[in-house]
């Protein structure tokens, strides 16, 4: 199932907010090996804010950084759909 996303942008702060919707909470959790620390690592390495609830993840930050974070989730989702069980080393 493709990732759906919504965009919100503020011209004054130049911050973009993007919400990626996944087929289920379990599918999303499997992308980060159900380890919330990996999401913190993503925040630190890409300079974005990551918030997740249920079957969605919200990415906030500079547009180019949000683009990179979205690419990470898209690649992980593609791997998951191909049957790869995401482990910590796939996420990093």
Describe this structure in words.
With 92 residues, the chain is an alpha+beta fold. It has a single domain, classed as 2-Layer Sandwich (Ribosomal Protein S8, Chain: A, domain 1). 45% of the residues lie in helices and 27% in strands. The protein has a four-stranded antiparallel sheet. α1 crosses α3. The longest helix has 19 residues. The protein starts with a strand and ends with a helix. The mean pLDDT is 86.
How are the elements arranged and paired?
Layout: E1 4-10, E2 15-21, H1 25-31, H2 36-46, E3 49-53, E4 56-61, H3 63-81, H4 88-91
Antiparallel strand pairs: 1-2, 2-4, 3-4
Helix pairs in contact: 1-3
Short description:
The protein has 92 residues and is α+β, with helices and mostly antiparallel strands. 45% of the residues lie in helices and 27% in strands.
Strand order of the largest sheet: 1-2-4-3
Report the average pLDDT across residues.
Answer: 86
In total, how many beta strands? Answer: 4
Quickly name the level 1 CATH class: Alpha Beta
Instruction: Kindly provide the radius of gyration, computed on alpha-carbon positions and rounded to a whole number of angstroms.
Output: 13 Å
Instruction: Identify the overall geometry.
Output: globular
Query: Distance between the terminal alpha carbons, to the nearest Å?
Result: 23 Å
């Amino acid at each position: 199932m493709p990732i759906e996303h919504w965009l919100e942008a503020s011209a004054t702060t130049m911050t973009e907010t993007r919400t990626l919707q996944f087929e289920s909470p379990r599918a999303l959790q499997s992308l980060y090996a159900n380890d919330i620390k990996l999401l913190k690592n993503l925040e630190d390495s890409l300079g974005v804010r990551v918030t997740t609830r249920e079957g969605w993840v919200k990415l906030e930050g500079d547009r180019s950084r949000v683009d990179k974070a979205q690419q990470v989730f898209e690649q992980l989702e593609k791997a998951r759909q191909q049957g790869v069980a995401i482990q910590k080393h796939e996420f990093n």
